[in-house]
Every structure is written in structure tokens, then in C-alpha cells.
Amino acid sequence: MRGIKSAFEFESYKIDSLHLEMKRVLGVLEFRGNIDQKTLLLDISFREPLYIKRQKKYVGGLVIKLTVAPPVKNGQGDQPKEENIILRIDLSISGLFRTEQGQFDPKTEQNLVTQQIPAILFPYVRATLSSLLANAGFGSVVLPLINIHEVAKKAKLEIKEVDW
């Protein structure tokens, strides 16, 4: 297997921003068990991917906002009121990828960068959030599986070239 080399390589990732804020009330401190999946609100946005010309590398990323609040009863898609939010986590992740120039046609490379980068990074986000919540005393939380490819397609990301 040493002779096989991918034309699109995932080099590394970093969680580059993390903020956790919990409502400081006795009821939350007394909480034991696991967070109910119905109380989780997940917002995903994508960073515009960058192409670093000198090194022929791509940088892509995700920004995740996880909110824990009682379900809103007014209707589907409503945001909880600020005073009802129990826990909020803002997390962002960046990944570094390399491709051999000329290996892919431009459309294929565009799809790899705008759809595969988020799809490759999302499991790291899920694992980080699950671990963080468990270690913060909120039990085991498994974030729902999301078809990141479809979400990324709808985002219509454009690659920006930079000279770093």
C-alpha cells in the first residue's frame, strides 16, 4: 500500500476556536443524565475555502453553534428565547488539504474542496462536541448525523486564492 498516494490529501486539522457558556442556575448544576436530543439546536456554516497558491494547498472549515434549550412550541424552526438557553457552544475547525495540480478537472476539484472538506471535518467536530459535553458534566451526547455533502452543495462556496 505504500505505492498508493491520494491525489487529494487531508494533511491536518485544528479546532481553532471554542467557547462554552452555561446558564449558571442551580437546576443546571443539579442536572444528571444525558441531554435530550430534542433540546439540541445545531447551526452549521462553512468558511469560504482558500487556495494557497505557493504551497498548492487548500484550507477549509466549519463554524458550529450548538444551543441547548427547551423545544420551542410556537412552530418549527423558531429560535429559543435567550433566557431559555441552558448551554451554548461555538466551535470552529480548520483543515489543511493538498492536491496534485492537474489531477482533476476544475469542476471536480471545486466539488472536492467545497463538499469533501466539510464532510471530512464534520466527524472531528462531532467527536469534539461529544467529548466536551461529557467532560463538562452533561452526559453522553451524540450529535445527529447530517448529510454535509447536501448542506455544502446548497452553500455554494467559492474558492478564494491567496498568496501566503
Write the layout of secondary structure elements.
Elements: E1 8-22, H1 26-30, E2 40-52, E3 57-68, E4 87-99, H2 106-135, H3 148-155, E5 160-162
Parallel strand pairs: 2-5
Antiparallel strand pairs: 1-4, 2-3, 3-4
Helix pairs in contact: 2-3
Polypeptide structure, described:
With 164 residues, this protein is an alpha+beta fold. It has one domain (8-162): SecB-like (Bacterial Protein-export protein SecB). Helix content is 26%, strand content 34%. The chain is built from three helices and five strands, in the order βαβββααβ. It has helices at 26-30, 106-135, 148-155; strands at residues 8-22, 40-52, 57-68, 87-99, 160-162. Strands 1-4-3-2-5 form a five-stranded mixed sheet, with helices on one face. Strand 2 and strand 3 (57-68) form a beta hairpin. Helix 2 (106-135) packs across helix 3. It is elongated and about 60 Å long. The protein starts with 7 loop residues before the first strand and ends with a strand. The model has no long low-confidence stretch (mean pLDDT 88).
Top keywords for this entry?
alpha+beta; Bacterial Protein-export protein SecB; 3 helices
CATH class annotation? Alpha Beta
Shape: elongated
- The first-to-last residue Cα distance is 33 Å
CATH architecture assignment: Roll
CATH superfamily: SecB-like
Main β sheet profile: 5 strands, mixed
Structural class: alpha+beta
β-strand number: 5
The average pLDDT score comes to 88
Order of helices and strands: EHEEEHHE
* CATH topology descriptor: Bacterial Protein-export protein SecB
Q: What's the oligomerization state? A: single chain
Unreliable spans: none
Total number of helices: 3
- Measured on Cα atoms, how large is the radius of gyration? 19 Å
* Sheet with most strands: strand arrangement: 1-4-3-2-5
